[in-house]
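User: Structure please.
Assistant: Input sequence and predicted structure:
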Amino acid sequence: MPAEKRTPVKVYLTAEENDHLTRQAKALDIERGQLIRLRALGDPTIAGKAPATPTAHFSLKTYQNAVTAASRAARGCAPRAILESIAAAILCSIHADDQTQTTVARPIGASQTDG
């Protein structure tokens, strides 16, 4: 799949803001531009005031694998930025479902079989 051409967007930052974004991107093991792009697109895995360490309940590798799979499935019919947001939303949804299922109270000793 050919690389998607992006249009540069100028952003004015103070030196402190620039350093802060650089540190956060480094902690997330992504490029600063990718961090800015994810935040600008409202990606749920990268909060607007994220701490210097990742807080997602899945790894960056899992997220990258999901985006790659979405890119293959879309076969060039959707911009990567949209696929990134969709992949993140799906991963968050799966995690939320997992949390709901693990917090359901079951009586101790209840049978787990049909018969």
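DSSP finds four helices and no strands in the chain.
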